[in-house]
């Protein structure tokens, strides 16, 4: 688990389109059932399980962080969830995903309810179209596949979020997969050895007297 996925920790090679995640200072190996510190990740990208001090988390916190980044990209926001502190960060999350969904998550994993949550008002889950801009230019990255991918990453239940492998197989990335496959095929063709075979009607051992000048 990286545990601090955010824009500042992602490098993109504009030429090769390669992506690298850097700064693994908070990284940890995942052991099922192991308890980890919740004092990880940058506030704007903290998964809800971290915000309610659920310490038996796993790699889905990184998927959440990517989802929060992705939402910021397609909806043209610097931070999609932007609370002033951890309590407000959780409220901003519930405001989008809904109070009922939050309660189901808490009950399913037997997470003690933080006292500060009682001060939150009730929120209906919002549809993603609610975050679209009136400016069509700002909606240029919003597609049906983009929303479907987002929906499957930004959900309270960590075990319902896509894994990284599943996310890469999502239809949203089909164009990327096709481009990679095409490039790999081109590279394989360029690197294939060339075998020159003599023509069967040419006797390479004899000089036929041909003039090649």
TrEMBL record:
InterPro entries: CK2_alpha, Kinase-like_dom_sf, Prot_kinase_dom
Enzyme Commission identifier(s): 2.7.11.1
Sequence intervals crossing the membrane: none
Basic and acidic residues composition bias: residue spans: 203-213
Pfam families found in the cross-reference section: Pkinase
Single GO term (MF): protein serine/threonine kinase activity
Alphabetical UniProt keywords: ATP-binding, Kinase, Nucleotide-binding, Serine/threonine-protein kinase, Transferase
UniProt GO BP: regulation of cell cycle; regulation of transcription by RNA polymerase II
Reaction(s) the record says it catalyses: L-seryl-[protein] + ATP = O-phospho-L-seryl-[protein] + ADP + H(+); L-threonyl-[protein] + ATP = O-phospho-L-threonyl-[protein] + ADP + H(+)
Tagged with keyword Transferase: yes
Chain residue ranges for the region called Disordered: 184-213
Domain Protein kinase: 1-173
Stretch forming the signal peptide: none
GO cellular component term, pick one: nuclear lumen
ATP-binding recorded as keyword: yes
PANTHER family named among the record's database cross-references: CASEIN KINASE II SUBUNIT ALPHA
Name of the protein described by the UniProt record: non-specific serine/threonine protein kinase
Organism: Reticulomyxa filosa
């Amino acid at each position: 688990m990286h545990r601090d996925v955010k824009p500042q920790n992602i490098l993109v090679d504009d030429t090769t389109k390669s992506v690298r995640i850097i700064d693994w200072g908070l990284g940890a190996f995942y052991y099922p059932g192991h308890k980890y510190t919740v004092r990880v990740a940058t506030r704007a990208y903290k998964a809800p399980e971290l915000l309610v001090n659920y310490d038996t988390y796993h790699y889905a916190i990184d998927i959440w962080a990517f989802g929060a980044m992705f939402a910021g990209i397609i909806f043209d926001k610097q931070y999609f969830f932007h609370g002033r502190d951890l309590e407000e960060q959780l409220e901003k999350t519930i405001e989008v995903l809904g109070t009922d969904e939050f309660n189901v998550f808490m009950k399913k994993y037997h997470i003690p309810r933080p006292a500060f949550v009682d001060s939150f008002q009730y929120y209906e889950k919002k549809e993603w179209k609610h975050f679209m801009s009136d400016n069509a230019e700002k909606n240029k990255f919003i597609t049906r596949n983009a929303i479907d991918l987002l929906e499957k990453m930004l959900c309270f239940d960590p075990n319902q979020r896509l894994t990284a492998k599943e996310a890469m197989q999502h239809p949203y990335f089909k164009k990327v997969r096709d481009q990679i496959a095409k490039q790999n095929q081109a590279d394989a063709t360029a690197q294939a050895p060339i075998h020159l075979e003599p023509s069967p009607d040419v006797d390479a051992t004899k000089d036929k007297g041909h003039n090649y000048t």
